[in-house]
Amino acid sequence: MGFKDSKRRVIDCLNNGLVLHEQRNNINIKNLLAVGQVSLDQIIEILRRSRGDSYSTSPHHYDANIEVHVVKTCHSDKDWYIKWYFIEPNSIFISVHH
Fold first, then answer.
1. Residue 20: helix, strand or coil by DSSP?
2. What total of structural domains would you count in the chain?
3. In a structure prediction context, what are the per-residue pLDDT tens digits for the chain, which is 98 residues long?
């Protein structure tokens, strides 16, 4: 899946509340969306403004069959790191932080 498809799909998930969060250490620092410090709308706006040169993918560290999507971008004078994958029908966020 390429950048445009991934971006469209994750924004659709965010708009429809199809969002889960991967359990991890330091979630209050590493996933600001999970702890309510940023909203779904804020993440949608950041992702909408992102471009293909800020996007990459890699296999999930626990299951190489899962493609993990990463956007590293600047928005509102902050560098953002957003990392997620898809398991139908949801997007599962690993990291959302600056």
1. strand
2. 1
3. 899 999 999 999 999 999 999 988 888 889 999 999 999 999 999 999 999 999 999 999 889 999 999 999 998 899 999 999 999 999 999 999 99
N-terminal to C-terminal alpha carbon distance within the chain? 25
pTM of the model: 0.93
Give the SS3 label for residue 50.
coil
Please tell me the distance from the alpha carbon of residue 26 to that of residue 34, in angstroms, as a whole number. Answer: 11
Q: What CATH number does the domain containing 32 carry? A: 3.30.2310.40
Q: Name which of 25, 51, 48, 29 is nearest 38 in CA terms.
A: 29
